[in-house]
Write a structure and sequence with these properties.
332 residues; 4-stranded mixed sheet; disordered N terminus; binds beta-D-galactopyranuronic acid
């Protein structure tokens, strides 16, 4: 296509999408694209809305040349599957939790460790600082460009039967975890039986009694309807594994520099949106499940931490990663 045609085509696209096309930011030769992004949660969920926001920014700033469609509610599959599809380039973007990445990208294991982050502020300082940047950069070796971390609240256990003492009351219980070695070993260390399975299978497993419990943050516990079957929410707040937005390196590699800059910029812009929506959603989700009559149980978090922290090396199963842990601990 000639440069003139290319420019005209972009302008028309831009005009069709935005009322005022300020600039045609794509250099000629760059390809217009409708990106596909995978998401496990429904459309109104904070992570989904953040990626939709990112797509809107991308469309606006590319003069309408690019757009992004979020396939929410697991339309493209469960997280392990979408990760693989993204690695292959069949899916362009993927928003998942770091836990299903733990086996593939070892550095992410550190972020899943129990009782590592002291507070949400501590987590943000780590993710927004050099350690966060290093972990994002580590994805590239495995076929992904990691663009941003999103918030996920502290994860707590929830069970079908009433559990009061952790770890004592946990012995033998079948607890669903994400498909991650860190979480699997954590459950073993608590004397329970880990049942790694995809998110979309948990509701049926709880309903039919195949598992006795699971663990997640307030918004997931509410949105997934797990609270209807696992009526005891135990405030263990044992992990804060964040969400991550990645892009397929196979797709990234054929983009030009301007598109890459645009994508990085739009992804970072969406972080503030996600954090705000997340804080709101957490409060609403907690309120809804409490109103639905679940029992909320306090636990001795110190006792749990005393059992789990010495097991970190085992959960990481890579001695090199302890250096990252120490750097995180040292972040004020
Ligand atoms: C949620 C997370 C999802 C998914 C889910 C799970 O907190 O937002 O991406 O990983 O947990 O437990 O599978």
């Amino acid at each position: 296509m000639s440069a003139g045609n290319c420019l005209r085509q972009r302008l028309w696209r831009g005009l069709a999408i935005t009322a005022v096309t300020v600039a045609v930011s794509l250099p000629c030769g760059a390809m217009a694209k409708v990106f596909r992004s995978a998401e496990t949660h429904p459309e109104d969920y904070p992570t989904t809305q953040a990626v939709i926001t990112m797509g809107r920014l991308l469309a606006e700033r590319s003069g309408g040349a690019h757009s992004l469609h979020v396939f929410h509610s697991r339309q493209l599959g469960e997280e392990k599957e979408t990760i693989e599809q993204t690695r292959l380039g069949a899916i362009d973007f993927d928003r998942v939790n770091v836990a299903p990445f733990n086996d593939l990208v070892p550095e992410t294991r550190v972020l899943s460790l129990p009782f590592l982050f002291r507070s949400v502020e501590h987590l943000h300082r780590v993710l927004d600082g050099p350690v966060g940047a290093e972990i994002l950069a580590a994805f590239e070796r495995y076929g992904f460009i990691a663009l941003a971390f999103y918030d996920s609240g502290p994860r707590s256990f929830y069970t079908r039967k009433v559990v009061r003492m952790l770890p004592d009351d946990f012995a033998g219980l079948r607890i669903r975890v994400q498909q991650s070695l860190v979480f699997t070993r954590m459950i073993e260390a608590l004397g329970a039986q880990p049942r790694p399975m995809p998110y979309g299978e948990v509701l049926t497993a709880l309903r039919t009694g195949i598992i006795d419990g699971a663990e997640n943050d307030w918004p997931s516990y509410e949105e997934s309807l797990h609270y209807r079957w696992a009526r005891t929410y135990i405030l263990s707040r044992h992990a804060m594994a964040p969400e991550v937005l990645v892009m397929s390196k196979a797709v990234w590699d054929v983009l030009d520099d301007e598109d890459r800059r645009l994508i990085r910029w739009a992804a970072l812009e969406s972080v503030a949106v996600q954090r705000r929506l997340w804080a709101e959603r957490q409060a609403v989700a907690e309120e809804r499940v409490r109103a639905a009559g679940i029992s909320v149980v306090d636990v001795d978090r110190e006792a749990m931490a005393a059992v789990l922290r010495p097991r970190w090396p085992d959960m990481l199963s890579d001695a090199r990663l302890m250096a990252l842990v120490h750097r995180i601990e040292a972040v004020e």
